Amino acid sequence: MNSFLFNIATQLYSKYNDDLSNFCLIFPNKRATLFFNSYLNKIIDKPILSPKYYTINELFIKLSGFEIADKIFLVNQLYKVFCEITLFKESFDDFYFWGEMLLNDFDNIDKYLVDAKKLFSNIDFIKELETNYDYLTEDQIQIINTFWSGFNTSKMSKHKEYFISVWKALYPVYEKYKNILKVQQLVYEGMIYREVVENIKNDNKIEFYDKKYVFIGFNALNKCEEFLFTYLKNIDKALFAWDYDNSFVKNKYHQAGFFIRENLKKFPSSFEEIENSLNNNHNINIISVSGNIYQAKILPQLLNSLNISTTEYINTAIVMADENLLLPVLYSLPENISDINISIGYPLAGSWAFGFLELLISLQTNYIENNNVIKFYYKDVLNILNIPVFSCNNSEIVNSICNQIISKNIIYTDLDIFKDFELAKVIFIPAKDQSKLTEYLLSVFSYVYNLIDTKKDKKYIIEKETIYSLYLLVKKLNESLLSLGITIKTETFVKLLKRIAYKTKVPFIGEPLAGIQILGILETRNLEFENIIMLSMNEGIFPDISVSGSFIPYNLRRGFDLPTLQHIESIYAYYFYRLINKGKNIYLVYSTSNDDFRYTEMSRFLQQLKYNSNYKIKELNFDFQIQISNPLPITIEKDKIITDVLNQYTSASFDFTFSAHSLNDYIDCPLRFYFRNIKHLKEPLEIVEEPSSVELGNILHKSIYFLYKPYINKKIDISILNKLLKEDNLKTAVKKAFNEIFQFHDDNNFELNGSNFIIFEVALGYLKKIIEFDKEMAPFEILFLEDEFYQKLIINDNTVVKLKHKIDRIDKRIDDIRVVDYKTGKEMKRFSSVESLFDKENKERNRAVFQILFYAQMINEKYQQKTKVIPALYVIEQLNKDENITLEIKEKERYMPIIAYVNYYDEFIKRLKMLIEEILNPEIPFMQTNNVENCSFCPYKDICER
User: Fold this and answer.
1) Is residue 91 part of a domain?
2) For residue 127, what pLDDT band results from cuts at 50, 70 and 90?
3) Residue 292, Cα to own-chain centre: how many angstroms?
4) Alpha helix (H) ranges present in 370-433?
5) Quick one: which H or E segment has residue 25?
6) Using omega within 30 degrees of 0 as the cis cutoff, is the peptide bond preceding 300 cis?
């Protein structure tokens, strides 16, 4: 394919031959110079000296003698000047963001040769527009006039007054700032451009030693570039090569030719043109996919449709309007593609390294120190340890540490837990100020970089590159701050580091003249490809409609001929049409899904192609619909393995027992019983940091235990209960409960914050309520407290099973034995019948009543009906002195209290035996419940897909 660059190389060599060594070739970007030089090498038939190659930026820098300064240096100098002139009191961190914005405005002002003094004039100078602004057109003057006429001095709002006050200061800031930079010979790019122009205007001895300066493939020119082109043209040292298509140049309304039409008038082409035009020979496909990530997933299919060999991929380009898709694209490429050249930078903010940085910052922010003992917050620790780079290489020790933290519910981990882990000695150390944090980050990144072995596992190549880029970024930022003598807080350093990281891209190294090309839209300038796949062709992404912040309002930008959104759209149009006009097989892909809250409409350029009758467009849709079918019911037949486990329940050992909890599980869902008690599937452990209602119940039970424990088997009267009701005694019991369950603090250093404080106060109130209620029951004797009981039960044919009971409290009043269970929820004490407690289909089944009757039957047998056993539920929220704590069963349309369990013992024990027989019956499988409401809080619902 005779490309634009190949054509220019051919004509240059044919016309100037050996004289090319005296030529200087100027390109919009560096990449074009590589391809041009390769074409020139193919054309020449003898050794010659190479011409000079520069990008336009490099040429201006060479001519100026200045050096472009570091961004932090530039913003810092601007901050000092701005503070001095405006008496600005904000911190450097607060200034940095809009300092960058102001610096960008100054850069634009200089590159477009705007008279800054006149730009930063205000409403007071409006009358001078027609006389002192003669270099502006009438339309420009009208636009500026319209803008300032909106600032009526008699009716000016506070916002407008503030704008005027800042606006008045900008010219003095601009002038002083540039003078300071010029003395130091460290400037921003726009200053270099303007300095070159001013020197040429003032005959300040800028020498153009080369015989000819050849400007190749330019489009939009700023005023400085336009001036340089004109000057060199006038002294007969310039040649111009324009890369365009007649279809969009001859049509005066075509946006893609907006700049080229003017350029051709001012700087006619010095070379013969190659006729290019988008026509019906082009294979143009507009493809929609139902998800942003699927744009990358269809690449193998698109590449396969090209039907070319891997050696021909040099003529294939994947052009990415959204560079965040780079990793999905790389992972989606077919394995047979070995040569890949990536010319775009991967956004550092989207890398795992940036996420790692945020984890390290969080680790340093959240650690606590008590008596010189450092403890790290468990979430930060677990998040860092579970990074694949660490967990894969140290899986055994990482798993051990994680299991300790979770199983012991450790909220803050001390350093002892990491004593056998080398990596932890680098990461889990405190960094108490900005300088320490810098040393810490550099040390960690260096260690991790060396830890990643890309020879062993190539999939971590990108991770290694991004961690190295982050290392350099921290190092450079720290060196910049030190060289400028800037002392900032740790918080400011972190904000600044993140802000710079968001704008940093990780470069990739590749062979640009081999393999498939992965480019951003800017890198396609002057290049041509037969096969083009453009991704993210969505409106809002291509063209990018996001507008950079600016102090200069839109109308003033238009009035002073500074770049606006319209300029950007014209530039994108040129990039797009120039690229596809040179292609043969063109795939334009966009996403129709808003799953990531992105733009979903096709780009305006695709719309233009569709509705232009000159082109034949194929529209395709790759619809990745995920079909969600109803999960199949799960039935577990009782095979030999299962029956062997069930037989353990009838063995002599008490290792396998039926409890109220397990039997409730079976009634609610036999499959849940199977998962928990047959397969012994452990529920995922979680660290409980802020107690839930379940933890509140546990805390309350423990609090009652600690409060009543000294009085077991003793008569408890009102005087004792009044003593227990004292605030100190109640608080001590709740503190002990917290300490035992959550291991927060010891008794001498107990402190709770946030939700835990609320839970503490609620538990304290509940405990007080129970003691107050017990005063109404006094005197009584507590026989057992939180004790476990085991019971043998003959169910049939002398088959014996074991039952396990853990009862909150058993007490005695006169001759009555009460079996007490505490409930912090909204349990009901009423139930319709004993039968209803065993009914799997009953959505109103009372689990709490089943539990307390299960305990009561054991106590009833223990005392062999010598005393009256009364089941009682303490539903704390309903507890008051008039509350009836006894159960109530429905009899003849009325609810009657259960004054003695023995009256219901026969029916309950009969149905209990039937239930256990069913569980042990090898012919009855374990099946899912039909009541899906029972699945809401089941730990195994993901297995059942409910």
Assistant:
1) yes
2) very low
3) 16
4) 378-385, 388-393, 395-407, 424-427
5) strand 23-27
6) no
Closest CA to 879 of 832, 830, 827: 827
pLDDT, mean over the chain: 86
Last residue of a domain, one of 481, 506, 531: 506
Q: How many CB atoms lie within 10 A of CB 760?
A: 20
Per residue in 264-314, pLDDT (tens digit) is 999 999 998 765 555 557 889 999 998 888 899 999 999 998 888 877 788
Phi, psi of 472 (to 5 degrees): -65, -35
Q: Please choose, from the candidates 680, 675, 673, the residue with its C-alpha nearest in 3D space to the C-alpha of residue 916.
A: 673
* 760 neighbors 752 (Cβ within 8 angstroms): yes
Residue 631 maps to a domain: no
> Is 199 within a domain?
no
581-630 pLDDT per residue, tens: 888 999 999 998 775 556 788 999 999 888 876 778 899 988 765 555 67
Residues 801 and 699 in one domain: yes
Whether the CB-CB separation of 721 and 775 falls below 8 Å is answered with yes
Q: Are 97 and 117 in contact (CB under 8 A)?
A: no
Q: How many domains does the chain have?
A: 5
Distance of CA 217 to the CA centre of its chain: 39
DSSP state of 69: P
Write the CB contacts of 892 (distance below 8 Å, at least 6 apart in sequence). Answer: none
Quickly tell me which residue has 């493939």 as its tokens: 217
Nearest Cα to Cα of residue 661 among 392, 850, 456, 437:
850
Let me know whether 494 and 363 are in one domain: yes
What φ, ψ does residue 887 adopt, rounded to 5°?
Answer: -70, 155
248 pLDDT higher than 60: yes
Q: Cα separation of 188 and 66, whole Å?
A: 9
- Tokens describing residue 283: 């294979």
pLDDT of 879 strictly over 80: yes
Give the bridge partners for 619, in sequence order: 286
The verdict on residue 633 lying in a domain is no
Q: Which helix (H) or strand (E) holds 317?
A: strand 316-320
In this structure, the strands spanning 617-622 and 283-289 are parallel
Distances (CA, A) of 15 to 1, 12, 179, 273: 21, 5, 46, 15
Per-residue confidence (pLDDT) for residue 544, from 0 to 100: 81
- Nearest one of 876, 886, 690 to 767, comparing CA atoms: 876
Mapping DSSP to helix (H, G, I), strand (E, B) and coil, where does residue 187 land? strand
Residue 379: other Cβ atoms inside 10 A: 16
Q: Rounded to whole angstroms, how far apart are CA atoms 245 and 256?
A: 9
pTM summary value = 0.70
Q: How far apart are alpha carbons 498 and 375 in whole angstroms?
A: 25
Looking up tokens 């159960």, which residue turns up?
887
Distance CA 67, CA 88 (A): 29
CA neighbor of 121 nearest in space, from 141, 97, 93: 141
**One-letter amino acid for residue 550 of the chain:** S
> Can you give the pLDDT at residue 751?
58
How confident is the model at residue 141, as a pLDDT? 59
- Token couple for 929: 């419940």
Instruction: Tell me what pLDDT residue 410 has.
Output: 78
Give the burial string for 59-74 (b: 16+ CB within 10 Å, else e).
Answer: bbbebbebeebebbbb
Q: How far is CA 291 from the centre of its chain?
A: 18
